[in-house]
Amino acid sequence: MLQKTRGIVLHRIKYSDSSVIVYIYTEKSGRQAFLVRGARRKKSLIKINLFQPLYALDLEIYFNPKRELQSIKEYNNIIPFVSIPYNIQKSTIALFLGEMLYRFLLEEEANKPLFEYLLNSIRYLDITEKSISTFHLLFLIQLTKYLGFNPNDNFSEQTPVLDLKNGVFVHAIPNHTYYLNLKESRLFNNLQNASFEKINLLKLSSTSRTNLLARIIEFYKLHQSFSGEIRSFQIMKEVFHQE
Q1: Can you spell out the DSSP letters for 121-160?
Q2: I need a labelling partner for 139 at 20 to 30 A (CA). Which of 16, 115, 160, 230 fits?
Q3: In 37-179, beta strands by DSSP E
C-alpha cells in the first residue's frame, strides 16, 4: 500500500555494502524500519545525509504492516536545518536524543500528539539562539508524558523525594536505590513544569546536569525494560562539561 506520511529519523545502521536500514518514527504508523537499497554506493542518487538523527522528512512509502522492513519511494526534508548540523552542541544533542528515541520509542501505531511534540521540539532546537545546555533534560522529562510513564506532579515540602521506581514524589527515602536526592527531585519537578522558551531561567551546573541526566536515563530503563548502554551519553558529558 502506497502511503504518504511525515517521519522523524531515529537511527541508521549498515545492512550491506550498499544498503542501510533506517528507523523512522512516522506520523501515521509509529516506529517503522526501512530498507534503503543502494544508499552506500559512491555514485548513488540517494540523499543519505537526510537519514541522520532528528531529520524530519516528508515520505511516500510502500507500507505493509505484516513486514518488518518497509520501503521508501520518495522523501524530502521538512525542516531545512539552519544550525543543528553546524553547531557541535546541537548536533550532539540530536545524536543523543536520536539514540534515546531509538531505544525507547517503540510503539508501531500513530500518536499524533507525540509526533507533533517531537517535531516542534526539533524546530525549537534548530532555531533557538538561547542556551541549550538543559534542552535535553526538559525534552526527556516532558517526553515521558507521551510515553505513559511520567511521574505524578505531586512535589511538595511534604513529598520532596522522587521515587523513580513508582513514579511518584514521596515523603522519605524509599527502601530501594531508585530515587533522586532532594536537590535532583526539585530540579526534576522544575523541569516538569518548565517550557523550552523559559528554560534558560533554570541555572544548572555541569555536574548537576550530568548527574540528573544519568538518573533520567535510569528512569527510562526502569520503565521501558532496556538494560543496555546509551553510548552517546559519554559524548554528551564531554561536549557539555564546561557549559
Answers
A1: HHHHHHH--S--TTHHHHHHHHHHHHHT-PPPS---SSS-
A2: 160
A3: 56-62, 69-77, 161-163, 168-170
Span 43-69, pLDDT tens digits: 565 678 899 999 999 999 999 999 999
The owner of cell 500528539 is 113
Query: Residue 226 in contact with residue 103, Cβ under 8 Å?
Result: yes
Distance between CA atoms of residues 137 and 142, nearest Å: 9
Q: Domain 1-78 falls in which CATH fold?
A: OB fold (Dihydrolipoamide Acetyltransferase, E2P) (2.40.50)
CATH 1.10.3880.10 is the classification of domain 81-243: no
> By C-alpha distance, which of 195, 191, 209, 59 is closest to 120?
195
230: DSSP letter: -
In this prediction the pTM is: 0.94
Domain boundaries, the chain: 1-78, 81-243
For 17-44, the pLDDT digits (tens) are 888 999 999 999 999 999 998 766 665 6
C-alpha cell at 99: 539514540
